[in-house]
Amino acid sequence: MFFTKRLGIDLGTSRLRIAIPGRGGRIVIDEPTVVTLSAQENAVLAAGSDAASMVGRAPETVSVINPMREGVIDDYRIVEALLRYYMGLVVGKFNLVRPEVMIATPAGVTNVEQRAVRDAAEQAGARRPAHLIANPLAAAIGAGVPMGDARGALIGNLGAGRSEAAVLSMYGVVVWESARVGGQVVTEAIAEHVKRRHSLLIGEPTAEELKFASASAIPVEEPVRAEVRGRDQSSGMPRSVTITSNELVPSVQQVLQTFVEVTRSTLERTPPELTADIIDRGMLLTGAAARLQGIDAYLAEQVGIPVAIADNAEDAVALGAAEALDNLEIVGPNLLAQESVLGASEAR
């Protein structure tokens, strides 16, 4: 336990990360956003890594649930329980002072979805009001992008359930675009490819492992070969096949094309002066899907600007939320505007 009173939270579709501020911040919780429930009693049996290890292996009496879908809350009760448990690990279960939290939410969430996140955090023990920050802004701060001046920065945040592109300036989101397509869809596309090409059925954990171990967004001269084990679609018997990274390229690119269109749409609406900054600085990628091999080269070719991957791509959002909380006097006045503007996606 760290007994800190300030927490930055990245409540993602696939993982929950909690960071504490100070000297660049530190990730103290990094767990899958998964729980297992008893089918009879509807009681939580396990959470995080323990629950994730049961995916595809649990008996009928146990349900494996992901309470987040496409970056927003799908099961309020489970999300509240997860936040209460992991916040308690960080601040102590019997802490008399509620922690101040900053939770990152996708750009474009509705007011109802925003309210659900804030209410879940507050019911889980956070100090009222729980602060909200847009994912791209948190990612930029966490990745160390200078935000204090009037220069434009283009951030591509590739999460498990949602992809976002946003132009930022002076701690604010100028223009943004998002799509409910992310790393999970890449995982599903890989599983579908293996099924269609090799008549082999594989589970989500196997497809996820294959995505980061072998998959590539561009053809490579020396393809990585991986042995994949699953169930033969015809006979139902166990079987293994060899997959190469190059054969997965079309499936990966088909999913990434959606993010290409999101980025282009964002750039088309960017003010000219900020566009000039972006040509010089390029786009910075954050999020777990930024680890996909060759994604920076593929996006640079498709969009026509330099693309780089943040050193702390997976942790940038949580670290940025924590740092923003530690600098509320600078970021705070802009947060209120972001929470109202970014939550009005229905009116766009």
* SSE series: EEEEEHEEEHEHEHEEEHEHEEHHEHEHH
Q: What is the terminal-to-terminal distance?
A: 43 Å
Strand content: 25-35%
Instruction: Please tell me the CATH architecture of the largest domain by its name.
Output: 2-Layer Sandwich
Strand order within the widest beta sheet: 3-2-1-9-10
Number of domains: 3
Helical residues, percent: 25-40%
Q: Please report the first level of CATH classification, the CATH class of the largest domain.
A: Alpha Beta
Q: Would you tell me the overall average pLDDT?
A: 89
Outline the biggest β-sheet. 5 strands, mixed
By DSSP, the count of extended strands is 18
What is the rounded Rg?
A: 20 Å
| Approximate shape | flat
Low-confidence stretches: none
Number of helices: 11
CATH homologous superfamily placement of the largest domain: ATPase, nucleotide binding domain
| CATH fold group of the largest domain | Nucleotidyltransferase, domain 5
Summing up helix and strand content along with how strands pair, one would put the structural category as: alpha+beta
